Amino acid sequence: MTTQKESQLATAVLMIRPARFESNPLTAASNRFQHAQDISVEAQQEAAVSQFDDLRRLLQDNGIQVVCIEDTFEPHTPDSIFPNNWISFHADGTVVLYPMEATNRRPERRDDIIDDLGSKYGFHVTRTIDLSAHELDGRYLEGTGSMVLDRANRIAYACLSSRTHLDVLGDFAQQLDYEVLAFDATDRTGVPIYHTNVLMNIGETLAIICADALPRDEQKMAVLTSLQKTGHTVLSISPAQMEAFAGNMLELRNAHGERLLAMSEQVSDSLTKKQRETVEAHSKVISVPIDDIENSAGGSVRCMLAEIHLPKM
Question: Which domains does the chain have, with CATH numbers?
Fold first, then answer.
């Protein structure tokens, strides 16, 4: 069990540069943000790599360390561009590996990447907690997609879905000394939202959430009260903005101590003037267009970044 104080904001991120990106048919049923494509898989891969490189450069130009790992051609992992679903990194040196619903996503878990973080990049790993055995019982928890972590206050917010199960949440919470705040969330048609990180994100002082996606008033009040009690300014976004990935942002801290809020251009364009002013009172906005990735795979900038909170050697 860990009790070490952890910063909410990472200064380094892991990104996986895709080798065979395409819209994944095994994830489409549970991800209403994902859309089938009428272009070739070669065209999808070309567009994804170009947009991936644009985001990587944007982060590096703004003082964020990017550990960029090339995906392997085999096995075919069409969603490897979203590493935060299979791994998370913590300030006491803990690495957590997660169970994932789609069978063709499970090979994304790579021990060589964890090894490289130490041998090539100087990060210190003290232990690895592997929760992937839950897959054998049909239970899943897809990392910081399934959970939005308030690391400073050790609270894991999670909307339940076919990809996020209470048993695994409990296992995570017990081993990492987190409180779990679980709730139901649905889109405008009543379909469960597949990942928590498309409806909310938590920065150091600002939390952004689509509260309208929480149909049960008592759960909505519990989440909003918790965010306020932990000192966050709460900014509400609409269901339409959520569908444009406005919940899928990530706040980081650069080498100069500046807070940055990374998002896609679609997200940035969806914000109202007043919302923009609120966001910019807390952090600097950085954005880049990744429309092809968003449309094909149903995830945005936050999904592409696994924050590295590990200590340096």
Answer: 12-307 (3.75.10.10)
